[in-house]
Amino acid sequence: xxxxxxxxxxxxxxxxxxxxxxxxxxxxxxxxxxxxxxxxxxxxxxxxxxxxxxxxxxxxxxxxxxxxxxxxxxxxxxxxxxxxxxxxxxxxxxxxxxxxxxxxxxxxxxxxxxxxxxxxxxxxxxxxxxxxxxxxxxxxxxxxxxxxxxxxxxxxxxxxxxxxxxxxxxxxxxxxxxxxxxxxxxxxxxxxxxxxxxxxxxxxxxxxxxxxxxxxxxxxxxxxxxxxxxxxxxxxxxxxxxxxxxxxxxxxxxxxxxxxxxxxxxxxxxxxxxxxxxxxxxxxxxxxxx
Length: 290
Ligand code: SIN
Prior knowledge:
It contains 8 helices and 16 strands. The chain is of the alpha+beta class. The chain starts with a helix and ends in a 6-residue tail after the last strand. Strand 10 (200-202) and strand 11 (209-211) form a beta hairpin. Succinic acid binds at residues 95, 105-106, 123, 125, 137, 266, 268, 279, 281.
């Protein structure tokens, strides 16, 4: 039945039910238990991730072990350089916001681990304890943003390189340390490091070009000062985050979002106070952007 419907829609999915989430990117995958998938289904989920950039599931029930087993089907796992993992689960960490916490992890447009030499390929985030309302996550398509640039702008930025840094999010002077990070997350202050990545990257699997913006990690363009760099970078971020290139995911307990950090950004919305929000994250190791 599902395969017949897929044929009628002319989509390549036979094992999974895929519903586009917006006109631009993102998709919901339904009627699936992510703890019981075979290789063919894994291949279709991977194809959906590559096609839609961010995919969403409801009604899942992950333990740290089964979340790791699911994520391992898609590649090698990353161990976060600064966030303490769950006890006994070195590849998993929890994003915890307690009722009195001021800090909201991921509250700014970014792509995961852009401040490292080999930023994350993808992220699998699971909603453990999610408030009834609030704490949604927004995503934007950096493919769509790149495609919509004028030819002149594409030529202007073609060879620019961006310097990203861990200083704003994990350096010892970062606001989060001044404000106090959730104790439950146990984040360590980092030695400040910088890394250079192309502003326009080519996706290693699809071969398509996208912007590679990560504003919370931005320092400057290579061979330019921050003051010279900021106006152009801010223009590109405003372009990339316009509503047409975004989607907004509302979490429930048991929701899973999986996104491709090579062609999307995301933003954890901080509209919560006095409630608890607990998410469980596993991250896939990526390659050096080119
Ligand atoms: C993240 O940026 O990894 C966290 C996103 C979220 O908690 O919504």
